Amino acid sequence: xxxxxxxxxxxxxxxxxxxxxxxxxxxxxxxxxxxxxxxxxxxxxxxxxxxxxxxxxxxxxxxxxxxxxxxxxxxxxxxxxxxxxxxxxxxxxxxxxxxxxxxxxxxxxxxxxxxxxxxxxxxxxxxxxxxxxxxxxxxxxxxxxxxxxxxxxxxxxxxxxxxxxxxxxxxxxx
Length: 174
Prior knowledge:
The structure is a single chain. The chain has helices at about 5-10, 15-20, 25-30, 40-50, 55; strands at about 85-90, 95-100, 120-125, 130-135, 135-140, 145-150, 155-160, 165-170. By secondary structure, it is α+β, with helices and mostly antiparallel strands. A five-stranded antiparallel beta sheet has the order 1-2-8-3-6, with no helix packed on it. Strands 5-4-7 form a three-stranded antiparallel beta sheet, with no helix packed on it. The radius of gyration is 16 Å and the shape is globular. The model has no long low-confidence stretch (mean pLDDT about 80).
């Protein structure tokens, strides 16, 4: 992630970015130092505050071809310890972004609900995941898929000690 580079290039202090993104200075500092990985909602807020795309924030290069292929080269997107990895949607003219999310096993009250513009699809790749959308909670297993309006507050929690992962696709609605 190229947060510090983009922030400094834009002439912003951490305080400026905190104010414009609605996130705390401490949290932004942790992201810059690689201690924390932003949620999808936080990445969208940071990109908007910086005036860049999420792709640019994650350091992805845009291609001129109308077909985008991101090759894994035999690796797992972002590695197993990475909470959030951008895997597709690297062009400015795309309305969808795809991420691999690896939720942690956190107590239900310990995770903050996320919400952002658009529509979201979540497809469980591995592990058991609880998704909460508003007041509704569902247990999801590998192969399960859910689609919802992502302006509704939502969160993910891994339900077992086995690593869990999901493909999340967000489409802008406008």
